[in-house]
Amino acid sequence: MNKQLRKAVIAGNWKMNLLPAEAAALVEQLKPMAAGANCDVVLCAPFVDLQAAAAAAAGSNLKIGAQNCHWAASGAFTGEVSAQMLKEIGAEYVIVGHSERRTLFGDTNETVAKRTRAALDAGLTVILCVGEYLEQRQQNITVEVVRTQTKIGLAGVSADELSRIIIAYEPVWAIGTGLTATAAQANEVNKAIRDLLAELYGRDAADGAVIQYGGSMNAANAAELLAQPDVDGGLIGGASLKAADFAAIVRAASEG
Ligand code: 13P
Q1: What value does the mean pLDDT take over residues 58-71?
Q2: Active site residue 70
Q3: Which of 174, 175, 209, 226 could anchor a disulfide with 256, C-beta 3.0 to 4.6 Å?
Q4: Residue 160: which CATH number?
Q5: In Å, how far are 42, 148, 242 from 17, measured between CA atoms?
Q6: Which among 13, 169, 240 is the best mutation to test ligand 1's pocket, defined by most ligand atoms within 8 Å of the CB?
Q7: CA 146 / ligand 1 centre spacing (Å)
Q8: What separation in Å is there between the alpha carbon of 115 and the centre of ligand 1?
Q9: Would the pTM of this model clear 0.85, i.e. be above it?
Q10: pLDDT exceeds 70 at position 130
């Protein structure tokens, strides 16, 4: 209903794929497509690819993002990367709380909130990921789980800062499995997230917020998902590694 208030954001999450030269080559391939896109296009690269990806994307409509950041500004955190470091190297976005970080690397709602805070302080836009496990969907607690993840993840985020927050609803059972939420399932949860944002920040702020869907989105199913009133873009894993497939998703978003 208020979809015209929002510009869709299509973000590729390359995960742990592509060497720096491969990342730069994929950016080059995507540039012509991005020039005509009627949506924002973000590529979230591994840390070591950021410099090459940002250099290749310079002067184009493509924006570069990272896939995680630490919450401290600096210090004795061996192996970690700060939000300011990401900003300095050319990232404008950062994914926070991806289910792979939560499941495999111990991220919790509380650490996600700290990373979100640090990213905003560094001037980055945050793609905050939420989503339920299959058992939670089967127990009919999807909305409750996602509301809790969103609410805690946003603790300390002001209404003004909400314009630099993208929520990505990614059901864990749909990630990398080829199982996609139906358009109705995706829209139902995205709408529940928007209703929570309205409770927290007011209806106008909620209506302006970008809420993506992610989980096996591809060239074939993107148009239907992106046509949903509360689906404002996608966070794409596997299909973002193939230029033609990713371009088709960007086209679907430009039209949807
Ligand atoms: P797939 O598109 O490969 O299912 O991955 C989704 C995802 O995790 C994006 O962050």
Answers
A1: 97
A2: no
A3: 226
A4: 3.20.20.70
A5: 16, 31, 12
A6: 13
A7: 17
A8: 20
A9: yes
A10: yes
